[in-house]
Amino acid sequence: MAGRSKIVFDAVRYDYTPPGGAPVPALDGVSLAVAEDEFVAVVGPSGCGKSTLLHLVAGFLPLADGRILLDGRPVGPPGPDRGVVFQHFALFPWKTVRQNILYGLERKRGLDADTRRALARRYIEMVRLEGFEDLYPAQLSGGMKQRVAIARTLATQPDVLLMDEPFGALDAQTRGLMQEELLAIWSRRRKTVLFVTHDVHEAVLLADRIAVMTARPGRIKALVEVGLPRPRDRAVIRSAAFAERCEDVWALVREEARAAEAGVGPMGATEAGGAR
Ligand SMILES: Nc1ncnc2c1ncn2[C@@H]1O[C@H](COP(=O)(O)OP(=O)(O)OP(=O)(O)O)[C@@H](O)[C@H]1O
């Protein structure tokens, strides 16, 4: 890993408390340093705490223990320094494409109306939605809606981009196009990205490094350096190196998925007991 750390997870623990139940450890002992402008994908078996990890960085959830540092300081409540894109587009149905994007910018202080409009225009172009500015979300395809959501987040120029299965709801073809677009956008305007996905191919295609999480309670099982050349496009998926890297990551995820199925976390901790 090159460069200074942008995000540091230091022995992070988070307990999930179901309504009326006792706290269950969801994350325990997560330590990871993400470099400035690095693209890190997070993969792992279902329920291992990938989304929780992102929600903690976004400031949506409180830590039970440990620290998360952003530029060396503990993360605070949600703020415009961290842009969030989730699987469900969360657009305002009563606002047009342009109004949705302007909404994100209005929440950012210190931008006058002309600057906001110019930024909205620039990011509408970036996600190739010129000509659709005045349409409402219901008039757009799934892929277009997701592009609006991404443009809305990118337009605020956050230092850190937190993406939780952002393409998970899209059909395979649209997903491929969105991956291409994200690669192109990221290579033009690098930023620190944490990207949660179930899709190992997607992780290898996009990321610099892949953090593979253990079965619940999640922590980092392994960090895989992707090592494919940049700038990257989808042609890379035909290379032997791509296939090899996918296999490496798959082997790690498979091990943990089996542990999760058996109800036994790594190191033999049982799920039910939450014994760690
Ligand atoms: N709303 C919730 N209801 C039930 N359990 C929850 C909830 N939120 C968190 N948890 C607990 O926290 C753990 C981590 O959940 P999280 O959603 O972060 O996992 P994930 O790895 O993102 O899962 P998936 O891959 O299935 O989306 C779960 O195993 C569960 O025990």
TrEMBL record:
It comes from the Bacteria. SMART domains: AAA. One of its GO terms (molecular function) is ATP binding. Keywords: ATP-binding, Nucleotide-binding, Transport. The keyword Nucleotide-binding applies. Residues 12-240 form the ABC transporter domain. Belongs to the ABC transporter superfamily. This is Bicarbonate transport ATP-binding protein CmpD.
